[in-house]
Design a protein that fits this description.
The chain has helices at 58-66, 105-110, 150-160, 190-201, 233-250, 264-274, 295-301, 322-333, 347-356, 395-403, 409-423, 433-444, and strands at residues 2-8, 27-33, 121-128, 134-135, 143-146, 165-170, 206-211, 224-225, 231-232, 254-257, 281-288, 337-341, 361-364, 370-371, 386-387, 427-429. By secondary structure, it is of the alpha/beta class. The chain has an 8-stranded parallel β-barrel, surrounded by 8 helices. The longest helix is centred in the middle third of the chain and has 18 residues, at 233-250. It is an enzyme of class 4 (lyase).
C-alpha cells in the first residue's frame, strides 16, 4: 500500500480563520490508496471467479477516481461486421423502430403482453366404469380412465405441475342409455361417483362437469328426440336442470351446459339456487359450432348421433354476429363463464366475446383427424393411421405432426395455446394441459 498526495478542492468559506486572499487555495491531503487492480473482461472470455474487492472505503474509491486513477472496465465492443457484399446505405430517418423492443430475450420477456400459466388450463378427462385405462384411438396420448384408479392418478399428475382444474366426460354403458337420458341425473351414476371420490381425496380440486344428454342418450343427441327427428328444447332443459343439480350435489364446482338448448342457462341457475347451490358456477357453451372437429371426441364418449346431425341446435360455422345473440342471452340468464368451441379455428369469435363481455372467456381446444393415404409411419394405438391435413387442426394435428417430425410439437403446442390466450381466452380446456404445464415449469427452472 502506498501513500499518495493529491490536490482536493476546498470550500474556503467553510474553513474558519482562513483569509479568502490567502495563498492557500487548496489543501493537500495525504491518503493511502491501493493501486487499482485492473480487471479487463472480454466478451469472448469466461471468468468464473468474481472480481476481488480491494478493501477501500467509499471515500477512498471516490478520491482515487478524482485523482485520475480510474479502474479499468471492459472496452466498448467493436461493432459487428456485416457480411461481404452488404450495400452501404444511409440510415433510414425513423423516429420509431419497433425492433428495438425485440432485440434481446430480456426485453422481449419484459414487454410480453400475453402470458400462459398452468392456472389457465382445464384438463378434460374421459372416464368409464372399467378398472383399466383404455386408449382412445383417434386421440394420441388420451385414455378412458378407470374412475377409481386411473382418474385419481391422472389428477395427481396434473396437480404436480400446477393444473388444479379438470372437466369430466363419461363413457356410459349402452344398457344405461335411453331416449330421455335419465341416467344423466342418477346421483349414483358414473360422474357423481367420480366427483365424490376426487373431492374426498383432493378437496381443493376445481371440478367442471358437462351438462348434456348425448352421453346418456340412446339417440346420441344432446336433447330428447321427437319421432319426427326434432330435438325438443324445453323438455330437454327440464332434464338438464336435474342433471346439473345432481352434479352440484356430488360436489361439482362448475356445471357446463354444452347442449345449446335455448334458455337452459337461466333454468339451470334457478334450479341450482332452489336447491341451495348458489355458489356453483355455470360455464355456458355460448358459441358452440356445428363443427367437423368433434369426431374423436364423440368416439371417446361413444356418443355419435344415431341419425342426422346437430345443426338445429349448434351454431352455423359461417355465422359471426349470432355469437353476440347467444352471449347476451347467456349473460342475462346468469352465466358465470362463456365458452367458445372449437377454439383455434374460431379465434375471431373468442375476440368478439372478449370485446363484448366482461365475463371470463373460455376456449375448448378440440381434436380432429383425417384418414390419410399419404402417411405410412404414424401409428396410433388402434393401428389406424391418421394425420391432420388442415392447417387449422388442433390437438391431433400437433400430435401427428410432432410424431412425423414435421413440426416441433412442444413449440407448436405452446404457440397454439398462446394464440387462444391472446385472442381473449382466460381459461383453455386442453388435452395438452399437463404437457404444457410441464413445459412452463421447465421454463421457470
Amino acid at each position: 500500500m502506498a501513500s499518495s498526495i493529491f490536490n482536493a478542492p476546498c470550500n474556503i468559506q467553510a474553513i474558519k480563520g482562513l483569509d479568502r486572499n490567502s495563498k492557500f487555495n487548496c489543501v493537500k491531503i495525504a491518503v493511502k490508496v491501493r493501486p487499482p487492480r485492473t480487471v479487463v473482461v472480454r466478451a469472448s472470455e469466461r471468468h468464473d471467479r468474481p472480481t476481488e474487492k480491494r478493501g477501500l472505503s467509499d471515500a477512498e474509491c471516490e478520491a482515487a477516481v478524482v485523482a485520475g486513477n480510474v479502474p479499468e472496465a471492459p472496452p466498448v465492443p467493436p461493432k459487428p461486421a456485416a457480411p461481404a457484399g452488404t450495400p452501404v446505405v444511409p440510415s433510414l430517418p425513423l423516429n420509431r423502430r419497433p425492433r428495438r423492443n425485440r432485440k434481446s430475450p430480456v426485453l422481449r420477456a419484459a414487454f410480453q403482453e400475453t402470458h400462459l400459466s398452468p392456472a389457465n388450463f382445464v384438463y378434460p378427462l374421459f372416464i368409464h366404469e372399467g378398472e383399466e385405462d383404455t386408449p382412445i384411438g383417434a386421440m394420441p396420448g388420451c385414455y378412458r380412465l378407470g374412475w377409481r384408479h386411473g382418474l385419481v392418478e391422472e389428477v395427481a399428475k396434473a396437480r404436480d405441475v400446477g393444473v388444479n382444474s379438470i372437466v369430466l366426460f363419461p363413457k356410459v354403458p349402452d344398457a344405461l342409455k335411453s331416449p330421455t337420458g335419465d341416467e344423466a341425473y342418477n346421483d349414483n351414476g358414473l360422474v357423481p361417483r367420480a366427483i365424490r371420490l376426487l373431492k374426498d381425496k383432493y378437496p381443493d380440486l376445481v371440478i367442471y362437469t358437462d351438462v348434456a344428454l348425448d352421453p346418456y342418450s340412446s339417440d346420441g343427441h344432446d336433447g330428447i328426440v321427437r319421432e319426427d327427428g326434432v330435438i325438443l328444447n324445453d323438455e330437454t332443459v327440464y332434464q338438464l336442470c336435474k342433471q346439473a343439480v345432481s352434479q352440484a350435489r356430488a360436489g361439482a364446482d362448475v356445471v357446463s351446459p354444452s347442449d345449446m338448448m335455448d334458455g337452459r342457462v337461466g333454468a339451470i341457475r334457478d334450479a341450482l339456487d332452489a336447491e341451495g347451490f348458489q355458489d356453483v358456477s355455470i360455464m355456458s357453451y355460448t358459441a358452440k359450432y356445428a363443427s367437423s372437429f368433434y369426431g374423436p371426441f364423440r368416439e371417446a364418449l361413444d356418443s355419435n348421433p344415431r341419425f342426422g346431425d346437430k345443426k338445429t341446435y349448434q351454431m352455423n360455422p359461417a355465422n359471426y354476429r349470432e355469437a353476440l345473440v347467444e352471449t347476451h342471452e347467456d349473460e342475462s340468464e346468469g352465466a358465470d363463464i362463456l365458452l367458445v368451441k372449437p377454439g383455434l379455428p374460431y379465434l375471431d369469435i373468442i375476440r368478439l366475446l372478449r370485446d363484448n363481455s366482461s365475463l371470463p372467456i373460455a376456449a375448448y381446444q378440440t381434436i380432429f383427424v383425417l384418414n390419410s393415404p399419404l402417411v405410412k409411419d404414424f401409428e396410433i394405438v388402434c393401428s389406424t393411421i391418421f394425420v391432420i391435413l388442415e392447417v387449422s387442426g388442433e390437438y391431433s394435428m400437433i400430435k401427428a405432426g410432432g410424431a412425423l417430425k414435421m413440426i416441433d410439437e412442444e413449440r407448436v403446442m405452446m404457440e397454439s395455446l398462446m394464440c387462444l390466450r391472446r385472442a381473449g381466452a382466460d381459461i383453455i380446456l386442453t388435452y395438452f394441459a399437463v404437457q404444457a404445464a410441464r413445459s412452463l415449469c421447465g421454463e421457470k427452472r
